[in-house]
Amino acid sequence: MDHHPTNWGRPRDDRVDPYGTFPIHARPRPAKDVFADGVQRTQQPIVTGTSVIGLKYSGGVMLAADNLASYGSLARYKDVQRLHPVGTSTVVGAGGDMSDFQHLQHMLDSLVTEEFTYDDGNKLGPTEIYEYLSRVMYGRRSKMDPLWNALVVGGVKPNGESFLGYVDLLGTTYQSPTIATGFGAYIAQPLLRNAVDERPDPLSEEEAVKVIQQCMKALFYRDARSLNKYQIAKVTSEGVTISDPLEAPTVWGFAEGIRGYGAQTQ
Amino acid sequence: MSAQERRFNPYTENGGTILAIAGQDFTVIAGDTRQSEGYNIQTRYAPKVFRLTDKAVLAVNGFAADGNMFVQKVQQRLEWYQHAHNKEMPLRAIARLIQTMLYAKRFFPYYVYNILGGIEDDGSGAVYSFDPVGSYEREACRAAGAAQSLVQPFLDNQIYFKNQLPPSGGAHPKHLPLKEVLSLVIDSFTGATERHIEVGDGLEIYIVTASKRPNADLEAIANLKQVPGGFIGGEDGEKIYVVRRELKKD
Amino acid sequence: MSIMEYNGGSVVAMAGKDCVAIASDLRLGNQALTIATNFEKVFPVTERIMLGMAGLATDVLTLRDRFRFRVNMYTIKEEREIEPETFAHLVSSTLYERRFGPYFIEPVIAGLGKGTNKPFIASTDVIGCINFAKDFVVAGTATDKLFGVAESLWEPDLEPEDLFETISQTLMNAVDRDAFSGWGAVVHIITPEKVITRHLKARMD
């Protein structure tokens, strides 16, 4: 992430140095303004969402994402829902470019509507949505016109099994008992795996909520593009529920005495 | 970092290693199940080895999205072939099909190394290996992927008996028995897991046996499962088995 | 072009039961062109320590002489033979002296401890970060291949002749898959009694 004052409010360039690892003098930046010749393709994300996390638990799947859409380092939109229900047994969570995500939401809604109009009793489950998204994303990357997102698909299959999958802008896919995108891969994934791995039985719903909350708090503490306002989506055989925005209890008293954290001016 | 224009890179590498060894009347095709990007392990179970027909198995390694798409396209072409000809495509024809499909994308390649293993029409075990744009050859064994450089010289030594003298008056065996081949596959992957960070988590070994092969030696193998298929050849036909083993997860 | 691949060449050392082995290929190249096929990269340090160096050939020769000088100085000052572990640290500090303008070699050290006959092997990177290993160490343009083969062939407590076979097979099969190494090989087995040196008949292509 680029925290340098000269770059405040500018669109971020996630293709280069996403975590601000360069010294100031060597900081990479795009050669020209992103809007210079009118945008034809998403060559870089503009308004972005950060991590999405997800895990399987007994009887379902849980996803979480915060409500922030950033414009570079500017916290631009603070009430954006990044978890999107699809049909009755799937949720898609998205990080990356929010306009591309809205486009995907439209595509998915149209798909569900079209499926509904057939009235043949068939419903799209998480595997179908996952497969559909992977084809769309891979197709767009092959046209060199990607949808700049990392997506997490969670749901419950018709046979009652839970499903958790990942699709990104390259068309890369995988399924796993725990998934975390973006910065969450570094901060949340270890916590999620720690909670799930080496356990003979799946987590209970209460345990799952607890670890998700722990992850979102850790992400808020350490991801500069995150917001302490997030939602949790649960998918069970009963259907999809997406919570109202939640807040993690945080403690900042320790920062008072630390130079660089607190209010010192010199 | 200069101010030169950057563009979207449609490729990435997802690590992992694959390997195939041909026997007299069987072929073994194996791959680890880790999928990674950079230092991140994305999942500990993402298959890289796929059943194509009752006598052909394909292993793909490189850019996972291309690999999965390529396998699906090959499987679709094989299904079409079966509908048109009412038989399964012979192995050598699948090999040529793969070459054509890879070369068709010569100027925007599938970033994938393919190894095709199975049973030839004459009943012999066969391995075909490909580069991303379709160059291919039939071989007795081949390793590809992240740990190719670790595994291939070991296979040269143990399969081709390179740098080993034959027993006086004798010759090196042309083919090894299944039991020894499986041991070599497992040793190759445990060795690669030890020294390569992108290899590990799980090992998936496919065994394709020729029609009418007495498969008594398969009974000793732990965790062996038959892969359901078309069974076009009936009870006596070619069969595919899979063995799953754990590899170190660190 | 990487300076580490300019001349090519590989070295490997392995520990056995009361013995160690160290071996190198014989190629000296100028990138893809082979210049000589008698360029040994392993040198005696004492009666029971040997040093192998892979990397830039001119630095191999410079450092061979430099280490001979430093070991001689050590012997005179201390009035005793240097121990393998001490020598490893000598190598390390010599390389670290050039931290910001390094010699382009990766050394491999093999020896037996005085009195104890304890096998010792170690390697370092170009600036002297030591890797003490119990099993085997490798260096050079065939590093990956050497690791792959050695990891599968090596086993603990090999007798001198078995260790010779293991290190020879490891080296030959690894360098046969490396364009910058090969063209013959030399193996040294250090036992408490003597050092056995053998030139291998290897592929010359």
From TrEMBL, chain A:
InterPro entries: Ntn_hydrolases_N, Proteasome_beta4, Proteasome_bsu_CS, Proteasome_sua/b, Proteasome_suB-type. Pfam families: Proteasome (PF00227). PROSITE patterns: PROTEASOME_BETA_1, PROTEASOME_BETA_2. One of its GO terms (biological process) is proteolysis involved in protein catabolic process. It is found in: Cytoplasm; Nucleus. One of its GO terms (cellular component) is nucleus. Keywords: Cytoplasm, Nucleus, Proteasome. Belongs to the peptidase T1B family. PANTHER family: METALLOPROTEASE TLDD, PROTEASOME SUBUNIT BETA. Non-catalytic component of the proteasome. This is Proteasome subunit beta. It comes from Serendipita indica (strain DSM 11827).
From TrEMBL, chain B:
GO terms for biological process: proteolysis involved in protein catabolic process. GO terms for cellular component: cytoplasm; nucleus; proteasome core complex, beta-subunit complex. It is found in: Cytoplasm; Nucleus. Keywords: Cytoplasm, Nucleus, Proteasome. The keyword Nucleus applies. Pfam families: Proteasome (PF00227). InterPro entries: Ntn_hydrolases_N, Proteasome_bsu_CS, Proteasome_sua/b, Proteasome_suB-type. CDD domains: proteasome_beta_type_1. Its main location: cytoplasm. This is Proteasome subunit beta. It comes from Serendipita indica (strain DSM 11827) (Root endophyte fungus).
TrEMBL record, chain C:
Component of the proteasome, a multicatalytic proteinase complex which is characterized by its ability to cleave peptides with Arg, Phe, Tyr, Leu, and Glu adjacent to the leaving group at neutral or slightly basic pH. The proteasome has an ATP-dependent proteolytic activity. GO terms for biological process: proteasome-mediated ubiquitin-dependent protein catabolic process. It is found in: Cytoplasm; Nucleus. It holds the Pfam family Proteasome. InterPro entries: Ntn_hydrolases_N (IPR029055), Proteasome_beta_3 (IPR033811), Proteasome_bsu_CS (IPR016050), Proteasome_sua/b (IPR001353), Proteasome_suB-type (IPR023333). The 26S proteasome consists of a 20S proteasome core and two 19S regulatory subunits. The 20S proteasome core is composed of 28 subunits that are arranged in four stacked rings, resulting in a barrel-shaped structure. The two end rings are each formed by seven alpha subunits, and the two central rings are each formed by seven beta subunits. The catalytic chamber with the active sites is on the inside of the barrel. Component of the proteasome complex. One of its GO terms (cellular component) is cytoplasm. Keywords: Cytoplasm, Nucleus, Proteasome. The keyword Membrane does not apply. Coiled coil: none annotated. This is Proteasome subunit beta. Belongs to the peptidase T1B family. Its main location: cytoplasm.
